[in-house]
Amino acid sequence: EMAVVTDLTVGDYWDQLPEYSKRASDLGVSINSAYKAATLYYQQGLKTNEVFEVGTETLKMAKIAGLDYAQATDFMTAALRGFNMEINELSATRVNDVYSELAAITAADTSQIATAMGKTASIASSANMEFETTAALLAQIIETT
Prior knowledge:
This protein is mainly alpha-helical and about 140 residues long. It has nine helices and no strands. It has helices spanning about 1-5, 10-15, 15-25, 30-45, 50-65, 70-80, 90-105, 110-125, 130-145. Helix 3 crosses helix 4 (about 30-45), helix 4 crosses helix 5 and helix 5 packs parallel to helix 7. The termini are far apart.
């Protein structure tokens, strides 16, 4: 699937197997999950370095919050693109940290916060709201209701 949406060949991806295996092992996820998350990011047009950086944080989010990798990919994409953040490890870590922290201190979980963020990110960004402020407000609303 990745070879279809990129300039790389199936052989190129087989050459990357040790890197995917190491990443999957380090995060405690299956190699298949690492490949599937990467495929979703390749389908969005990301370059290999972006896929590895954002993909690692996405797999962490999925593992921490008990999410499916595809759902975590959607949540990460909504936050990054909704707030026009750079597609890199730093931004992905920022999203992951904010969601995890808010889930730990409120009665809202990552999935609820991220779902609400997906519905409000672009309008909040247009209103010059910060990602962290928007996420905190959404977590408070979710906790209250």
